[in-house]
From TrEMBL, chains A, B:
This is Gamma-glutamyl phosphate reductase. One of its GO terms (molecular function) is glutamate-5-semialdehyde dehydrogenase activity. Pfam families: Aldedh. CDD domains: ALDH_F18-19_ProA-GPR. Gene3D superfamilies: Aldehyde Dehydrogenase, Chain A, domain 1, Aldehyde Dehydrogenase, Chain A, domain 2. InterPro entries: Ald_DH/histidinol_DH, Ald_DH_C, Ald_DH_N, Aldehyde_DH_dom, G-glutamylP_reductase_CS, Glu-5-SA_DH, GPR_dom.
Length: 415, 415
């Protein structure tokens, strides 16, 4: 039996126990995990040092090494994040519908754990703890398959967490790490119908597309964001400047940052000279359509390909549009259904934008950077779904649950 | 451009219009569809006669021919079903969550159409109308790919329905029929990410498994039912007999009928002789474990394979179990997570069963035959989901929707 099958089978078995635990029993196990991360930090940091040394030998870039690095302070943050999840309400058991039928049948629809969740991700060891905690809190077993660059760290973390769980009601087998870092172990997980109930990929576009294209297990896609901000002539200039600068430059590397700014023509002619200076001060490179380049001498030309690109960087496309309809068409063509914003004082156009844009989150007069489980008040986030089924947008704990109909009768039969 | 791509593209374009229609505008279009099915029944029945003639020439079985056959009365039933769906509430726009954040952001989570739904199904022309109506009512375009045996009927029905829609606010292009009945058109649909948002297969196990195994488009699986009824020693005999007979024999061909009856030992020893006579009168063949065969001389032996089989027929496995734990293990091993029932007067065991069984619907003292959108009071059903994501169990109109977060601010930016 392969490592993947044997660990997924153990996780499935453990899920039947986990499914029955109370919120308190689960929280006690999670708190032991948080404490163990601190108590056993020397082991974890030593293992992390092995990954870092191997990374340096392999010529890994400083920014990737930084994402891989654990420190006592970072471990404390990770442990604190576990404790914060402990404080969130347990979605399992929530009553979603209650129906009493004319024949007397009482039907309840309640949240239940999904079962076994597979997570395929890249080299950030904090994801290991975060994903494990969210899955266990919502009553699910989890099979983690992290990147090879973090294998020593992940192995050490999972060993520490499983030891902690063995002193709790949560079965240690609820938490599994696939250590085979070959491509074959991912391929095997993608086809593991019957043992894995869902796979959530977390990482770059190529990792996600490999999962989406090849999995027969259901997938929750957390995808790319080519997000737009459309500013109308009626917009307040200061608000438009603040929102567009925030959406682009507050943290360009994330999926909810803006890639393209659409400006209605009079607004552009009145304000783009000034607005472009604001972006220049923030070290944002501009790529523009012809009118933009007429107004901003230093802007480079924007190609069709640019409009389709998620830069995740200090680069911004700017395009002048005639009206709302042209903005809607541009977004329908180039958007990735993630987060889209209109800045306007025109309530009718705002409502049309909110209604007609097909995206997980649509904004009127606020930065797209708010598309985030914490900013939405969920207290946690397993990712931002860009698909339309099951969960869309920031996913908190309820996104990690399924439902069950409980039907109680007194002998009813169907006629 | 292939037929599939060109029709799916037209459906996607139409979905942007459909998305904005009011419930009343959609209902007006659906009522025109219902009327047209009656007004144009001669055309439809003539086309149906072509399918029937071809079927007879090909040696199609009488029962399949009967499923294919349309009559004025059946068309009236189909039109009445459309009108019933018109009477159901429109789920689009429903407010699911309302959040006001400390920074003043107002966040609403509302139901929106999914977009374009692909339906792959077999040779029942009533499914053509039913699926089309449910998708349009919930604001979705639909691309139908029916079986070749019903192609003339489906082509005629879709032509009538599209003519009706052309007199309404619903774009006729919301409704598409793939006429290419080769396997290639199914394969093409399964990979049509970006044009189809979801595929719902409706039909036998091999059709569904082909879709699940090969689609890269998200799928809602409507699957097999190996359903159990477990009767404890404390059960009321008359209730246990009525429920188990109903679950097996009221309509054996459907997914929510029972395939295996589990009896606690004392109940079996006290009642199986009598109960088996009831099944014999209903022409149900019994297959049993050793104890069952000791108690019922005419029962055949039940193999492991039998316990895993969805008979959809007048055949029933009967097995004696020691207690609830053995019943739970058997169901965990052989069940398909569809519908499972316990008949007992023991409230504690009933609760354990409802809690621990992993299935779309779990029953205490009622027949599994109630797992059905109409019986649950949803007024419609696009299928019974046996997967855990998005929708589980009977799917009414809300299962055909996604959600969107609408965020309204006054200039908020993220710090």
């Amino acid at each position: 039996m392969s490592e993947v099958i044997s660990k997924a089978s153990a996780a499935k078995q453990a899920a039947t126990v986990l499914n029955r635990l109370t919120a308190q029993e689960k929280n006690e196990g999670l708190l032991l995990m948080a404490d163990a991360l601190i108590a056993e930090q020397d082991r974890i940091l030593k293992a992390n040092e092995e990954d870092l040394a191997r990374g340096r030998d392999n010529g890994t870039s400083p920014s990737l090494l930084d994402r891989l690095r654990l420190t006592p302070a970072r471990l404390q943050d990770i442990a604190d994040a576990v404790k914060m999840i402990v404080g969130l309400p347990d979605p399992v058991g929530d009553l979603l519908e209650s129906i009493e039928r004319p024949n007397g049948l009482k039907i309840e629809k309640r949240r239940v754990p999904i079962g076994v969740i597979g997570i395929i991700y890249e080299a950030r060891p904090n994801v290991t703890v975060d994903a494990a905690t969210l899955c266990l809190k919502s009553g699910n077993s989890v099979v983690l398959r992290g990147g090879s660059a973090a294998l020593s760290s992940n192995r050490s973390i999972i060993s520490v967490l499983r030891e902690a769980l063995s002193r709790s009601a949560i079965p240690a087998d609820s938490l599994q790490l696939i250590e085979d870092s070959g491509r074959g172990s991912v391929d095997e997980m993608l086809k593991l119908n019957g043992l894995l109930d869902v796979i959530i990929p977390r990482g770059g576009a190529s990792l996600i597309q490999n999962v989406v294209q090849n999995a027969t297990v259901p997938v929750i896609e957390t995808g790319a964001g080519v997000c737009h901000t459309y500013v109308e002539n009626t917009a307040d200039y200061a608000m438009a400047e603040a929102i567009s600068l925030n959406a682009k430059a507050q943290r360009p590397s994330v999926c909810n940052s803006m890639e393209t700014l659409l400006l209605q023509e009079s607004f552009a002619r009145a304000h783009l000279a000034k607005l472009s200076e604001t972006f220049r001060e923030a070290k944002v490179e501009l790529k523009g359509c012809d009118i933009v380049r007429e107004l901003v001498a230093w802007a480079n030309p924007a190609t069709e390909q640019d409009f389709a690109t998620e830069y995740n960087d200090y680069i911004l496309n700017v395009k002048v549009v005639k009206d709302l309809d042209e903005a809607l068409s541009h977004i329908a063509r180039f958007g990735t259904k993630h987060s889209e914003c209109i800045v306007t004082e025109d309530a009718i156009n705002a409502e049309r934008f909110l209604q007609e844009i097909d995206a997980a989150a649509v904004y009127h007069n606020a930065s797209t950077r708010f598309t985030d489980g914490f900013e939405f008040g969920f207290g946690a986030e397993i990712g931002i779904s860009t698909q339309k089924l099951h969960a869309r947008g920031p996913m908190g704990l309820p996104a990690l649950t399924s439902t069950k109909y409980r039907v109680v009768g007194t002998g009813q039969i169907r006629s």
